[in-house]
């Protein structure tokens, strides 16, 4: 779902063939593989993540693709020592999970050559919902954003990327937001909403946002699909905000 918007942000930012790119919080490698295609065989991508399980998955996926310009490194973004220099540093949905995002950007900007790029992509979760408003969709978005808030994570971090970049010492950042839309009869919208709640269910319950009986996770996708169809409502997932700046 995020691939088209991610590609658009990376292209607008200036990722191009031949670049050496560092991917922060690479996870299963989605962004790394997208960048690898853009930089081509004359470029390279190093993906860093602290999750061993995510990197094992990324490595298995790498084996099934005809890609030779991606490598992965397991380490903590806050402490890893990297001596190389890069043409660009990118990160998607990673700053949200760092206590001081501006400090992370400042740290990695030091690894980018003069004229190179820093690219960050984060969600503006509160922009999610439905048009027209459907009560169940709004409750789902409320459960998700409140769970992040009660976990001391900023559900609207994407909207704040410009001042965060400036706090990191990056000048004249460009910021854009991209959002998908799912038609009332498109099951992908309800599936995405229910799957996100299922992933967050332990946090939602633990922080007191909602009770399991209220959510009824096993019927949530069907109920969401029905409410969107009955209300002839478009489902909007969160806005993916992309921000970039030159060193």
The percent range for strand residues is 15-25%
Report the span from N to C terminus.
30 Å
What is the H-and-E element order? HEHEHEEHEEHHEHHHEE
Sequence of strands across the biggest β-sheet: 3-2-1-4-5-9-7
Q: What about the largest sheet?
A: 7 strands, mixed
**Shape field:** globular
Helix count? 9
Question: Low-confidence segments, ≥5 residues, pLDDT <50?
Answer: none
Mean pLDDT across residues: 96
Instruction: Name the helicity range.
Output: 40-55%
GO molecular function, one term: methyltransferase activity
Keywords: Methyltransferase, Transferase
Pfam families: Methyltransf_31
Organism: Solicola gregarius
Q: What does it look like?
A:
The protein has 247 residues and is an alpha/beta fold. It contains 9 helices and 9 strands. The chain has helices at residues 3-13, 30-39, 52-63, 101-109, 135-150, 161-167, 187-206, 212-215, 217-230; strands at 20-24, 44-49, 70-74, 86-92, 112-124, 129-131, 174-178, 234-236, 239-246. It is globular. The model has no long low-confidence stretch (mean pLDDT 96).
């Amino acid at each position: 779902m995020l691939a088209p918007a991610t590609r658009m942000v990376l292209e607008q930012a200036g990722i191009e063939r031949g670049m050496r790119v560092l991917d922060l919080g690479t996870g299963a490698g989605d962004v790394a593989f997208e960048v690898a295609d853009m930089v081509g065989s004359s470029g390279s991508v190093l993906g860093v993540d602290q999750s061993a399980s995510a990197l094992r998955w990324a490595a298995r996926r790498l084996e099934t693709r005809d890609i030779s310009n991606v490598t992965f490194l397991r380490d903590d973004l806050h402490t890893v020592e990297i001596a190389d220099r890069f043409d660009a540093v990118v990160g998607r949905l990673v700053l949200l999970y760092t206590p001081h995002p501006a400090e992370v950007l400042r740290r990695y900007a030091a690894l980018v050559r003069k004229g190179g790029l820093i690219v960050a992509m984060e969600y503006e979760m509160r922009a999610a919902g439905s048009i027209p408003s459907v009560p169940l969709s709004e409750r789902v978005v409320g459960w998700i954003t409140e769970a992040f808030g009660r976990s001391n994570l900023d559900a609207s971090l994407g909207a704040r990327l410009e001042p965060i970049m400036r706090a990191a010492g990056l000048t004249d950042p460009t910021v854009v937001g991209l959002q998908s839309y799912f038609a009332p009869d498109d099951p992908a919208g309800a599936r995405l909403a229910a799957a996100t709640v299922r992933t967050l269910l332990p946090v939602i319950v633990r922080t007191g946002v909602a009770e399991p009986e209220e959510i009824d996770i096993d019927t949530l996708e069907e109920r969401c699909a029905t409410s969107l169809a009955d209300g002839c409502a478009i489902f909007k997932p969160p806005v993916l905000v992309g921000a970039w700046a030159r060193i």
